Amino acid sequence: MGAPLGSDSSSSSSSPPPDKASHRYLKSKARSDRHLNGSGSRYHVTRRRRRHRPTMANSVHVEDLDPLWQNLDWAIGQILIMGWDGTEVTPQIRSLIEDHHLGSIILTAKNLKSAQQTARLVQELQTIAQKAGHPHPLLIALDQENGGVNSLFDEDYVCQFPSAMGVAATGRAELAYEVTKATATEISACGVNLMLGPVLDVLNNARYQPLGVRATGDDPQEVSQYGLAALKGIRDAGMASCGKHFPSYGNLDFLGSNLDVPIITQTLEELSLSALVPFRNAIASGKLDAMFIGGCGISSPSMNVSHACLSDQVVDELLRNDLGFNGVAISECLEMEALSHELGVQNGVVMAVEAGCDLVLLCRAYDVQLEAIKGLKLGYESGIISKERIFTSVRRVLRLKSTCTSWTKALNTPGISLLSQLHPAHLALSRRAYDDSITVIRDKEKLLPLSASMHPGEELLLLTPLIKPLPASSLTKKLLNAKDAQHLAWTNHDNWSHRDRERGAIMSGEGVFREFGKSLARSRNEKLLHTSYTANGVRPVHENLINRASCIIIVTADANRNLYQAGFTKHVDMMCSMLRSRGQKKQLIVVAVSSPYDFAMDKSIGTYLCTFDFTENALHALARALVGEITPLGTLPGTLRKSKKVLKSRQHWLVEEYRPERDASGLDELLRAVHRGSAPDLQFLQTTTAATFQLNNQLISEAHFVDLANWSAPEGLLQSIQRVNISFDLIHGVDNAESVLSHVRAHANPEILELYRFALQETKACGIVRAKDGAGSLLGTIIISRQHSPLATYVPALLSHAEDIGGILAPVVPSMPFATLVLQGLALMGVRQNKSHRASKTVLGWVVDDGTEPLAAMGFETLQAFDEITNSPDNFTSL
């Protein structure tokens, strides 16, 4: 047994806390003085004064804790979460529970073979803890995100569901609730009580982030919506939840080496506007039990942190003080190479606890785990970690355990008996979710379904990359079983060459898509050719098969990070175009089975589908979509989504009852304006009047969109603009125009530049609104046009006999972190100017595609849209 936790004579809790600003300055100054020497038995540190906030949850009253926790060994055991390799209880994990009083376990795919084995393993762990005198059951944590990230696989009892982005592709947040509740219920039946999820990261740089489909998307509000639904599902299943990865894994800069920590370069203000929104909303909901703190660094003018999970600026200040989180903070695994190599595990665990983490994660290495325990004891004995700090974490962990487990529940898991009852309903839910997630981004040549574009007897070619099977999959299970069966006959060389199953997994990569090929062939009842491709590019075997086939399907998996896949696909696309020009039938379909961003913006790929993961369930749904058994209805998540489902939830113009005596003349004027601004061949508009839309039916209430007098800015927009210190001003005339023209010249085409020059010359009827940052640098511009403006000659939508239409035209906002906010701010200032000029309507024109989504969120609706096309051969048909 360890020594009792004594009093900390150097505690500063009796001193009044300094004000927040000076407190932060002092902490950041003190941080540079810290240097822990973990190589010996002593720590050398410049002590710093810590503030202890007098909240109920954080105040430490020794008398209301079990006297057992006065023992240092027991207390330290409760603030550690550890794992091990192996499917059975080892002497090492038993010792950690019995001798070191470990209170929390993390299970991974390396521990789990089946649902029945998992339930048996967890029950054995809990029995060991009970017999060792633990007052509370163990926390048992598991990653079960679905998609490609599952730790438990059992095709007979545990269902596979789409990834977070796959669920979001369905456009239904209620599906996120159903799927997460089903998943949580299944792993809870096996004895797990803490789900490491949901993922709350926002993919601010979606195309280049390895997080990929584990995240919902790049829209913070959408991530929040689906995250809150998932939290409710976990809670309704009786489990505890853990949001991840705070403060964000959604926009990391990777420096290349495993020894380099990925870096967040966004400022706190930028994080607050995007990445932190889902975390803030999850905390405010009161349903988030724990938070996983990432191991990334932060390098920005507002914060400079080497490891987020070791920084009190991130945990104690940002998470606790600013966001108000009072649950359990769990550190990233301190065995990660970049962290352990730089600091040493003894230093790392002390820094994690001092920063405010309540559970310090060490995944698997027993010698490292013992070093961590030793480090925490030395940290306490040296006075670096106080008694109050340890008790605060113990209290939070015990409170979490009380919400999700008890000895009765821990020792009596329902296991297979419950799973067998749930399985039929969950299978149906899984199939429905996967079918609804399949997304067709483009199908220009109408190649789908294959039954409509291919004739009987024509050959189909499937080209797939060599990728590692998912850890929790039937293929991996077969590989491991085969390895175990052959292991006794292996030579020393065999043992060396197969020391890690990664090698065997890569060599068996073709097997990932073999069943998909068979399924597709059966569905078509036709021959299918299948081979793999690698970084070696297009080989003679590929050329021969492409010449034989009428249709080629290329599968990609994260082509943005595996550039050979993108190169191979473009090469085959070029070959097919060349063969088509010679009269051969060469249809090309590209399928992204992980990140949808592989070719989302490359419109030269005419037929492009996404599945969001490459599990067997996803590939079976893909086969059903390709042959026409189901109609794919999924959409791209986040800002790339153009679905009306999302637009419906955003603010629109206010609606009131239509009154002909008041509104008919205004509607007639609007129709005449639309007619004047429309193409000459739309002659029906000439005879269309307000009466055309009137049913004159007493039983039907007719409505219309009201004018600017009743419009208001979207909630929170002004506050967001103020928070990032964007200012706006209005200029007239060429005297003030040089900076504006330079900005437009750099970021827009010559036509827009001429439009700005024209507007600057019309000093009475036109003006330019400029957006600037705090340093006075120009961020964006927009043209304001009053009624009677000569610009109406060139923008017909501004013409009106009623003389009540104002214009805001040609916003020029380059790509940057706050581009959407700048665009919305410019539009808001333009509407305000129009209202001040007594305009009752505003027409916003010359907006490029990327700008329509944020403007739609403000209440603007598309009146007319024009596509700019070139005279390339690909466009001859449409011309």
From TrEMBL:
Domain of life per record: Eukaryota
GO molecular function: hydrolase activity, hydrolyzing O-glycosyl compounds
Disordered: annotated span: 1-55
Keywords: Glycoprotein, Glycosidase, Hydrolase
InterPro entries for the chain: GH (IPR017853), Glyco_hydro_3_C_sf (IPR036881), Glyco_hydro_3_N (IPR001764), Glyco_hydro_3_N_sf (IPR036962), NagZ_Beta-hexosaminidase (IPR050226)
A Gene Ontology BP annotation from the UniProt entry: peptidoglycan turnover
Domain Glycoside hydrolase family 3 N-terminal: 76-400
Residue ranges with Basic residues bias: 44-54
Annotated family: Belongs to the glycosyl hydrolase 3 family.
Official protein name in the record: Glycoside hydrolase family 3 N-terminal domain-containing protein
Organism: Cylindrodendrum hubeiense
